[in-house]
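FORM 7B: Structural annotation worksheet

SECTION A. Query
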Amino acid sequence: MARFIIHGRKRLSGRYRVCGNKNAALPMLAAAVLTDEPVTLANVPRIRDVSTMLEILADIGVQVAQEGSTVRLCARGLRRSRLRPDLCRQVRSSILFAGPLGARLGRATLYPPGGDVIGRRRLDTHFDGLRALGIEIEGGDSFRLRRQRLQGARILLDEASVTATENLLMAAVLAPGLTTLYNAACEPHVADLGRLLTAMGARIRGLGTNRIEVEGVDELHGAEWTVPPDPIEAGSFFAAAAATGGSLRMETPLDPDVLDVISRPFQKLGLRWQQTEDGGLYLPERQRLRVHRDLGAAIPKVEDGPWPAFPSDLMSVTIVAATQAAGVMLFFEKMFESRMFFVDSLIAMGAGIVQCDPHRVLVAGPAHLHGLRMASPDIRAGMALLIAALCAKGESVIENAETVDRGYEDVDGKLRELGADIERDSGR
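SECTION B. Predicted structure
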């Protein structure tokens, strides 16, 4: 297993270009099995989760060609509907093949998906919706899907699940008649998938809202599409630059609506940035982070939730940024009961954190962190620990570096370009 070795107290500064959105790219890769014609995706992030999805596609007979960040897929030779269990265990997004394979081939066998251990992540919403569309599921050690009579349906999702909404969208585009999804996820990457499907010939209304209508078509065709930039990566590197007192010029324009959502907690920490003429963002250096109290001098609270609430994927890095701000802030993680467990490592590094319960932590700063040997439990916590190590005095070692590689492209190389003292030890 690889590990990161970091010597902290280095200010991050420089120019940065954001990669393609992991959460948009993964369902788009699964959508390629819906047509015999080529689907070309540009700006695909070169991360481990994408590599695993491409390996799954190749294993079931999809032609895969990759050049840099451009991937060309052709499912004309799709021959298998059974996914390998070892590949399913490596990535949460393997579940996204249920909808497209069940709708197009009429059968599929999947195994329980892997991914980050951040709490229970239900599959009931996926399978209840697929059953409503006419795809039966038998569970156990594997999930066996059989198409009975594919037909549009009115479906009320029992939770606004992102991946369930994506799975049902991909199945509904081939289901005769009208499908209406109520309580659908509104996240931008769900709408991005819908726009790709529309470019492939699907008929979809209501993207970006919690009520989506799909008029089924007989078949889809190929398309070329560009994956939008990743707001989670952007927020992570902003947090790293701010926590170390550095500056950052982000050259990739972000959607204004997305920027509004991810910037709110950072603004509560006193962080300010400027819009550049080319649509990018500039974070000036040496900003003094100070928590802005709520009305009546109340302690402010940051809480996550379904879009347009603050994304859970940015909670961990924002907590680390708060350890370097003067004042007290409460963080309330509503989505996953194990997301906050990484704060034990921050406390051991000297952070002023009280863990109230599995969902809430109180952060008092600024804290003078010191180096520590620790392990990365998941993608976002791993990035948060990297940022903490960059702020800390002395040497830190972060084991299980591969977890961070699943969501961030060449993270150590990009941090070095910004001035970080970080190296990767392959352990060989």
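SECTION C. Observations
The first strand starts at residue 3 and ends at 7. The chain is about 30% helix and 25% strand.

SECTION D. Sign-off
Analyst initials: ____
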